Amino acid sequence: MDHLPIEVLHTICAHLAVEDVLIFRLLATLYAAVGAQYMLSTVSIAFLPESFARLKAISEHPVISQHVETLVYDLCRLPEITDFQDYKHKVHGPTNEDIHIPWPPPPESDIRALRAYNRGVKKFSALALSLRSQKLKQGWNKYLQLRNEVAGL
């Protein structure tokens, strides 16, 4: 099979089940490249951290990401979250890394520049906390809406 044309390898993969494509890819580097096109044409995701991590890994893969044609979002697999505090612990809102703090003034700056910078950082911290709280509440409301829609199905 080392000398089969690429077109024949594609024809073989097109007739294999996904489980068989995974085995086929282990045979040779060329087979891995050809088989990657037939592995994940459809990706299913749910509102779960591990599902989003898997989607991120697929999207960052240089070969597999090029062949995903369909995303299926499974609403029936929402995690069970009982209240807002539980939601807050399981879901993370934007962090300070999402909003960039300006660089502090150089060490040779006068005390007024340092005080102005410290006042700005305090305002920034309050704004970031407010933004986090607002985003968490929006997410909680969206979660409740989705959970109620799923319960109504």
What's a quick, concise take on this entry?
The chain has helices at 6-14, 18-25, 29-36, 49-60, 84-90, 111-152; strands at 42-46, 70-74. It has 153 residues and is mainly α.
Radius of gyration: 25 Å
Strand sequence of the main sheet, in spatial order? 1-2
For the largest beta-sheet, the strand count, sense and barrel status come to: 2 strands, parallel
Beta content comes to 5-15%
Secondary structure class reads mainly alpha
Percent in helix:
55-70%
Q: How many runs of DSSP E, i.e. beta strands?
A: 2
Helix segment tally? 6
- Low-pLDDT runs: none
Q: What is the H-and-E element order?
A: HHHEHEHH
Spatial gap, N to C terminus: 50 Å
Q: Based on CA inertia axes, which overall geometry fits? A: flat
- Whole-number mean pLDDT: 80
Structure description:
The chain is 56% helix and 7% strand. The protein has 153 residues and is mainly alpha-helical. Strands 1-2 form a two-stranded parallel sheet. Strand 1 (42-46), helix 4 (49-60) and strand 2 (70-74) form a beta-alpha-beta unit. Helix 2 (18-25) runs antiparallel to helix 3 (29-36). The protein is flat, with a radius of gyration of 25 Å. The termini are far apart.
Features:
two-stranded parallel ribbon, 7% strand, 153 residues, mainly alpha, single chain, 56% helix
Topology:
Elements: H1 6-14, H2 18-25, H3 29-36, E1 42-46, H4 49-60, E2 70-74, H5 84-90, H6 111-152
Parallel strand pairs: 1-2
Helix pairs in contact: 2-3
